[in-house]
Amino acid sequence: MSKIERDAARFRHIVKGRIRKELKQYMSRGELFGKKGKDVISIPLPEIDIPRFRFGTGGSGGVGQGDGEPGQPVGPGEGGQPGPAGEDEGQHVLEVDVSLDELAEILGEELELPRIEPKGAKSITATYRRYSGIRRVGPEGLRHFKRTYRESLKRQIMAGTFDPKKPIFTPIREDRRYRSWVDVVHPEFNAAIVYMMDVSGSMGDEQKEIVRIESFWIDTWLRAQYKELETRYIIHDAVAHEVDRETFFHTRESGGTRISSAYTKAAEIIGANYPPQDWNIYLFHFSDGDNWGGGDTEVCLEILKSRLVPDANLFGYGQVQSPYGSGQFIKDLRHQFSSDEKVVLSDIQGRDGIHGSIKEFLGKGN
Questions:
Q1: What angle do CA 268, 271, 275 make, to 5 degrees?
Q2: How far is CA 322 from CA 154, 158, 192, 200, in A?
Q3: CA–CA separation, 288 vs 190, rounded Å?
Q4: Distances (CA, A) of 89 to 6, 92, 94, 121
Q5: Cα–Cα distance for residue pair 173/146, rounded to 1 Å
Q6: Which helix (H) or strand (E) covers residue 257, if one does?
Q7: 314-326 pLDDT, tens digit each
Q8: Could you give the CA distance from residue 319 to residue 285 in angstroms, rounded to a whole number?
Q9: By the 8 A CB rule, do 314 and 280 touch?
């Protein structure tokens, strides 16, 4: 490894350490998610200084360019005199690009998340070539230069023909060595996430922003566990609709709340597209805890027990604190599913609760 490669690796190590140190702060903010690319995300890192040179105007005098006198200014300009306002930008924080795989690794280390053991009798398999040894025959494109050089050197030394003052190496057939490989079959399991969110009048912009932040981190972790991950979105007030991601995070309604409509829609989507014997299914529902009082909670509990929870790896319910929500629904779920490890309930007390909520949702490795 060259010196510049060592320096780059050291800098990456510093960056990862800094991100991990500030992870809780990043998890409560949402502005960096707008800068997400296909495979990387830009993260602002203050207080990491990169040394750089600034060049003055050649031949203009000043200390460092000939003899200097006491009181003489360093560089052009009159010492001690304020100048006009500048037009150059000031010093800003450094933004670094971090791959989503690296971000998932940092998340897992910081929150001590266990690796997920996928279920499902059916999976996609991919074959990878792994170089595992050296052999005497093979294609020239896989010739191992160092091993071939070593064999040629050994042969010449043993034959007494090696001249250290004028070393010449001409490998013969017996000297040549080639990389060998084995084909490794690796299973790539299917996974699907269904996000559900209450968009009734009691769920404001701040509550939806918390949901957006949580879903980003959940996606980041699950995508690191599964090669293929499909995501579906459901919004509901008194009626549920499947929507795209943009609509999911930017829709606001003013009607009442009937949670069973979302659970019914989720069951329909799973039944039509994701057989539980072939897919790892994750369900996340976010609400402020209000639900219609006409017996709808009992309907919700029945759908969960008979259709959703049995088919899912995990059902996560996040109750986002709201000045308008009653917060009752999470109490009903706790009463019904207190001993079910596939049901995870999280009471999210504002943005500061996101860090703990993510660990609650993903900490069991389901």
A1: 155
A2: 77, 83, 29, 12
A3: 31
A4: 31, 8, 14, 58
A5: 15
A6: none
A7: 999 999 988 877 7
A8: 8
A9: no
pLDDT (average), residues 268-293? 92
SS3 287: strand
Residue 215: pLDDT above 70? yes
Q: Which tens digits make up the pLDDT trace of 9-18?
A: 666 666 666 7
The confidence band for 186, taking pLDDT boundaries of 50, 70 and 90, is low
pTM for this entry: 0.65
According to DSSP, residue 211 is labeled: H
Closest CA to 197 of 246, 248, 243: 248
Backbone angles phi, psi at 70, to 5 degrees: -55, 135
**pLDDT at residue 311 above 70?**
yes
The residue type of 184 is V
Per-residue pLDDT tens digits for 195-212: 999 998 878 888 888 998
CB 212 within 8 A of CB 171: no
Sorted by sequence, the CB contacts under 8 Å of residue 76 that are 6+ apart come out as 56, 57, 60, 61, 62
CA 219 to chain centre: 7
Share of the chain above pLDDT 90, in %: 29
d(CA 335, CA 317) in angstroms, rounded, equals 14
Kindly list the structural domains of the chain, giving each domain's residue range(s) and its CATH number in brackets, ordered by start.
1-50+91-112 (no CATH), 125-185 (no CATH), 190-362 (3.40.50.410)
User: What is the average pLDDT score of the chain?
Assistant: 79
Write out the two tokens for 168.
């010449």
Length of the chain: 366
Sign of the four-CA dihedral 159, 165, 170, 176: positive
Residue 42 clears pLDDT 50, i.e. is over it: yes
Amino acid, single-letter form, for residue 338: S
Rounded to whole angstroms, the Cα distance separating 226 from 188 reads 7
Name, in order, each residue with C-beta under 8 angstroms of 263's C-beta and a sequence gap of 6 or more: 196, 285, 300, 303, 304, 307, 308
Nearest to 102 by CA among 220, 231, 193: 220
Give the confidence band of 236 by pLDDT, cuts at 50, 70, 90.
very high
